[in-house]
Write a structure and sequence with these properties.
The complex is a heterodimer. By secondary structure, chain A is mostly helical. Chain A contains seven helices and no strands. Chain A has one domain. The chains are: A mainly alpha, B mainly alpha.
Chain lengths: ~220, ~70
């Protein structure tokens, strides 16, 4: 009988501390942090009402996005390093299929992130040139078009290659995100009725919805 | 509505008998390692098509791999 050659990546069983568990705890921490952050934001908005102060002014560090980038970049890099061997096909049919699937998944992730990063880098250039100028406007349109095309392409490939468990995690996270949005949207409306002159809370609502969506996904996917 | 029973399965045992890792079983089933882990730990119940794929892979009927706890008693 022909011996099946199994590529190293397929032999690796889950270690005691899997990336998934790390991702789950990051997800849970994110939810807690953002719920606390949004509560603090609403309180700050309440206290600052009528003073003209910006909600997050002086309350959130400018390094926060950098820390988030490092955390997500680090987790992404660790996941890529760990799963990279599975992109190499072995001798069996299932290994070839699995390797193709793994390559397409990573291709979609890396392609989408790279496209969005390029689109993001074009924005400050456009702003530097000035949106009023033809070159600045063209650059801004190119950035938006890149972001839309990259995001759409990445989403389509991603939805094609994920399995049913990941699809269910997406369903849960979408539901949780939408519910959070409805609750916060109406909470803001109600607060606005009571406290006129409230600073804009759109950023806080967006951050909370993103965090809950991502956190729920990580928990449902990797728990 | 009847209370939903927790689904149990023998996937981990069957996998161990063949000396397969979760990643290897996942590759054979065309799903992710996370999906295999979630099924083994009872946190996710597979769809009927995936359950059939599992049955075919181990050459066993689905009810010999999965147990919904309802023995008709």
């Amino acid at each position: 009988m022909m011996e099946t050659m199994v590529v190293e990546g397929w032999r690796a069983d889950a270690p005691a501390w899997t990336l998934g568990r790390v991702a789950k705890w990051i997800g849970l921490t994110l939810i807690l942090l953002f719920v606390a952050g949004v509560a603090a934001g609403f309180t700050a908005a309440w206290l600052d009402a009528g003073t003209g102060a910006r909600v997050w002014s002086g309350r959130i560090s400018a390094t926060a996005p950098l820390i988030a980038l490092l955390v997500f970049g680090g987790v992404g890099w660790a996941a890529l390093r760990r799963n990279w061997p599975t992109t190499r096909p072995g001798s069996d049919e299932w290994q070839r299929r699995a390797a193709t699937r793994a390559r397409r998944t990573w291709g979609a992730w890396i392609g989408t992130v790279a496209t969005l990063a390029v689109a993001g880098m074009l924005v400050p250039f456009a702003a530097w040139l000035g949106i009023g100028t033809a070159a600045g406007l063209a650059l801004m349109i190119a950035a938006v078009a890149l972001a839309v095309i990259g995001g759409l392409w990445g989403t389509l490939v991603y939805m094609k290659v994920i399995d049913e468990q990941e699809r269910q995690a997406n369903l849960w996270s979408g539901y949780a995100g939408l519910t959070t949005y409805f609750v916060l949207f109406f909470a803001e409306l109600l607060i606005r009725k009571v406290v006129p002159g409230l600073p804009a809370l759109d950023g806080a609502v967006f951050a909370a919805v993103s965090a809950v969506t991502l956190g729920t996904f990580l928990v449902k996917r990797f728990r | 509505m009847p209370e939903e029973e927790e689904m149990k399965n023998r996937l981990k045992v069957l996998r161990a008998e063949r000396d397969w890792s979760q990643a290897e079983l996942a590759g054979r089933l065309d799903v992710s390692r996370q999906a295999v882990n979630a099924i083994e730990t009872g946190k996710y119940d597979p769809s009927l098509p995936l359950a059939f794929r599992i049955g075919r892979l181990f050459a066993m009927p689905i009810e010999e791999i999965f147990d919904d706890g309802d023995h008709g008693g």
